[in-house]
Amino acid sequence: MTKIEQIMTRDPIYLTQHANINKARMMMADKRIRHIPVKDPESGKLIGMVSQKAVLANAIKIINLRGLDQLEYTEKSADIGSIMEQSPAVFDINSELVDIANSLIEQRTGCVAIERDNELVGVVTSNDFVKFAVRELS
């Protein structure tokens, strides 16, 4: 039986809630990712998840209100804590894949965090499940 560890992205990059939105947008573009876990800088605990959808919605709002020329400046002036999902789905490393898949479907989210002993060890995305399905069907 396939385990979470076989499909998850291990040791994902993360930011703290004090990182600016521009940094998150640039990191997503550079790394070609759609979700970034957010950790508290003091405790190191997962406190949120920032999605590409939230970053882009924020960019559109800024452009509509202030214009494209103000996008970078405004993003650099705002923390990702202001746009992150504050209660991301979190699963233990020993959870069943079907439970994670059902959560992605039911919550209409593209990513869940994976923890071992309350420490972030990975993320599983809907894309990971598509890759898994392709491997299994081949």
Please, what is the CATH homologous superfamily? Answer: CBS-domain
Radius of gyration: 16 Å
Coarse shape: globular
Q: How many domains would you count in the coordinates?
A: 1
Per CATH, what is the topology?
Answer: CBS-domain
Cα separation of the termini: 17 Å
Order of helices and strands: HEEHEEHHEHEEH
Q: What class, by secondary structure content?
A: alpha/beta
Query: What's the overall average pLDDT, rounded?
Result: 94
Roughly what percent helix? 40-55%
CATH architecture label name:
Roll
Name of the level-1 CATH class: Alpha Beta
State the helix count. 6
Give the arrangement of secondary structure elements.
Blueprint: H1 4-7, E1 9-10, E2 15-16, H2 21-31, E3 35-39, E4 46-51, H3 52-66, H4 71-76, E5 90-92, H5 97-107, E6 111-116, E7 119-125, H6 126-137
Parallel strand pairs: 2-3, 5-6
Antiparallel strand pairs: 1-7, 3-4, 6-7
